[in-house]
Amino acid sequence: MRKIGYLAVVIIGIGIGLYSTIKKRANASHLETGQQLFNNYCIGCHNDKKSSFIAREWLFGGNKEEIINSIKHGRVSFGMPAFSEGLNDKQIASMADYILALASQTKMTATIESSNVSIHKSEVQTFTVDTVLSGLDIPWGLEFLPDGSLLISERDGDLLLFTSEGQLTKVSNSPNVLAAGQGGMLDLELHPNYEQNGWIYMAYSSPGTEDEGLANTAIMRARLQGNELTDNEVIFKAKPETDKRHHYGCKLEFDQEGYLYFSVGDRGDRDRHPQALDNDCGKIHRINDDGSIPDDNPFVKTEGAQPSIYLYGHRNPQGVCMHPETGRIWTDEHGPKGGDEINLIEPGKNYGWPVISFGINYNGTTFTNDTAKAGMEQPVHYWVPSIAPCGMTFVKGDRYPNWKNNILTGSLRFEYLHRVVLDGDKVSHEEKLLEGIGRVRNVEMSPDGYIYVAIEKPGKILKLIPQ
């Protein structure tokens, strides 16, 4: 009996050990599945897995039930789609557990920053990287003043002035900003005759006048007196206002004739806004410097159309820039899951969103089978998978001779600076620069010909110094 009892204990012990091993393996497999699904469906919007969820401030609750609810049913107003059509309950649960595993990591892990100061050798240009400024929130807009000072807009609504003497101060009397979701203080642009008139232009997500739960993209101009904005004047406010918190656009660019171009995203309503001319969303607009409408805008005489519209059929353009030699305006924009684009704009043209696209829904389902259609423009270039392009500039001047007239744009998703070589109006070559540097939010040329790059989380401004 004792032998049988001892044998039973041994068998039970082995069984418990096997059960524990099997359970650990099952949990590991469960988390591995969650990681694979997260990498496939989530990274495009949530950056890399660490900085998105480690030490996260949860908007809708951080327990498993709330996370499953967010994944399954989405948070439409914040741009989070529902995944119930593309994933089953078991897959969603594995994603939730993986996210919780990430969230359990310490904040210290999230704030580790590379201090690589080595020389960078691109295919045709050698350069070093200097950190000009760090410790920012999420820098979005960059604009240099004639005295060498740098204006910086942070997405939380702050406007900062970084002087040529190295002093950082907050500018008062900046616009009232609804900083939620993808909204906040967005881009900055100086008037071409800034030294004569002092006008600074700001794009931001503006709360509704009657219902502060509603918002849309607005453009304000103002003058800087010391550390304060004066003569504030709202010259454009996109309609309709909506409770959605994503796809605001917005980038600003003056052309050689003094017209101001800017983008407004579809504001999360792709089926209603981009293809209709009776609203401002999903469009590139052109206005005079005081907000009035140019007489030759393509839809000025079209009944029911918004007269500021210059072209339409866009999702969320977050790069607008002018070619330094041709003077033509180029844009880049976010597609869905795949189908980010570079476009050369033409007045009155329809760029197709969402009727045609090279992308699919974030949950893996399709919304269109067409990539081309009569009467709709094709992109100059597109990316699959999405790189999440943000910011855009042409390399001007002679400091980077082998990059001259190349396009630089940031990749939010893959965390690098993207170089695009043009042959006329066609893309002939691409190169990834500064891989792993962080989410590149903007790229700008200084008046003295240097490239500056804005990185978010942790927010910093980098300067590329050619060798």
UniProtKB/TrEMBL annotation:
Positions of the Cytochrome c domain: 29-103
Molecular function GO labels: electron transfer activity; heme binding; metal ion binding
Keywords: Heme, Iron, Membrane, Metal-binding, Transmembrane, Transmembrane helix
Transmembrane intervals: 6-22
The protein's name: PQQ-dependent sugar dehydrogenase
Species per Swiss-Prot/TrEMBL record: Carboxylicivirga sediminis
Taxonomic lineage: Bacteria, Pseudomonadati, Bacteroidota, Bacteroidia, Marinilabiliales
